[in-house]
Amino acid sequence: MKTANIPATNQQFTIGKIVCLARNYAEHARELGNETPAAPVLFMKPASSVIGDGETVRIPAYSQECHYEVELAVLIGKQCRAVSADNAMDCVAGYGTAIDMTLRDVQNALKAKGLPWEIAKGFDSACPLSDFVPASAVADPHNLQLLLSVNGVKRQDGCSSDMINRLPQIIAHISAIFTLEPGDVILTGTPAGVGQVVAGDVMEAEIEGVARLTIKVQ
Ligand code: MG
Q1: Which residue of 65, 133, 187, 204 sits 20 to 30 Å from the alpha carbon of 212, by its own alpha carbon?
Q2: Ion ligand 1: residue ranges with CB closer than 5 A
Q3: C-alpha of residue 160 to centroid of ligand 1, in Å
């Protein structure tokens, strides 16, 4: 069982489902040659894909191209189903830093065949996830700097203000499809600058004022 922790309030949640947005930053959609979607593009990672700060991403043997994507993670603290955008933020328990590890070669092959992405996005160690800060500690989740470096070289430097769909709309949209429960996590998409990591690399991801993550690659 994987847990999501909020050390400041001594809260611990068993992680349920991890619902992820694709193409939620226009510049990142463009860098991969994708259209900017009208509605959020969703996929899921299993809780078993989570690893914590200091742990190691293990690239599966069936991929030759593993990419990092730094993302703002939203921890759900109370059950919500078809919640309105106006009430959606009441369901948020905290914020954290995640890396949506993606086997880009595998994903591209699946996309070309119209097949689902799970084996490119949900493998063991595909979801490095920090501890969370309480929602009340973040003044504006739409004004957070997202940074990722590989071996000390900055690769991603974006701001959550550039999200296409914002948190109230995201939570309202998701909760109309999947009931959100305490311990569920939403990954809100990545800004531009994604790229490959290989065995031996070290990633440092940070959302300023939220959390840092140091993750090795093997
Ligand atoms: Mg992503």
Answers
A1: 65
A2: 69, 100, 190
A3: 13
